[in-house]
Amino acid sequence: MSGVVSGPAGGVVALAGNPREGSRTLSVAVEAAETLGRRLGHDRPAEAVDLSALGPQLLSAVPSAGVEVALDLVRGAGVLVVASPTYKGTYTGLLKAFLDRLPPAALAGTVALPLLVMGDARHALAVEVHLRPLLVELGATVPTPGLAVLEADLPRLGEVLGAWHDRIVPQVAATLGQGVTA
Q: What's the pTM value of the predicted model, to 2 decimals?
């Protein structure tokens, strides 16, 4: 289905709120989710919801099977990496429009990890000030600091994600009630 890479629910899911198809935000989100899943000992690949393919359907008055599948995948995630480019100092309207379709407490029982890709370090606090509260409002547990990825750091993304995962994996594993693999 367009916009969703499907698989069994309850695992690690990457949600990318960039309106551009094939975005760096999607790549960062998927790599963050894949690496996190491996570090948590998951044996299946992370799933991905790419909102760029669902944008027109999100704003349509006509129900969309693609949007419903994406919402179900997000609701069923055990760990949800929520990524957006930074627009006007916060996350995209596309991501907000998608998350607004979730009912209250829809993410209860989900560990959510906010991630923003940005051009300027001055926007780094947006991850904690804007995206974290949205996820908490939906009932998610957000046990760790979010990640602000500077566009200038994309060539060394593995290193950036590695340092973040070193800090967050023990907290995520403890929240999930599981051990951590090396």
A: 0.91
